[in-house]
Specification:
single chain, mainly alpha, 80 residues, globular
Length: 80
């Protein structure tokens, strides 16, 4: 069974976040603060992504944190 085409971009966006966190010694969910998200955004820009691409890359990450906060897995949403 092939993956849901709608899920593919989010999978890539989250995989890229998880990789960045691992590279920087961070847990991708617990202990993340707004400053970490801002550093990640800066890293995407330094990697050559345009502002519109960075905004698109953040869709999956914002959803990830939003649902984690709604489900009370984290005390606050660092991507807001």
């Amino acid at each position: 069974m092939s993956p849901d085409p709608a899920a593919v971009p989010y999978t890539y966006q989250l995989r890229r976040w998880f990789t960045w966190c691992q590279t920087n010694g961070l847990d991708p969910l617990n202990g993340i603060q707004r400053a970490h998200v801002e550093l990640y955004i800066r890293n995407l820009g330094e990697a050559g992504l345009m502002a519109s691409s960075i905004n698109t890359m953040m869709h999956g990450l914002r959803g990830y944190f939003r649902f984690a906060h709604i489900d009370r897995l984290i005390p606050a949403d660092p991507a807001v």
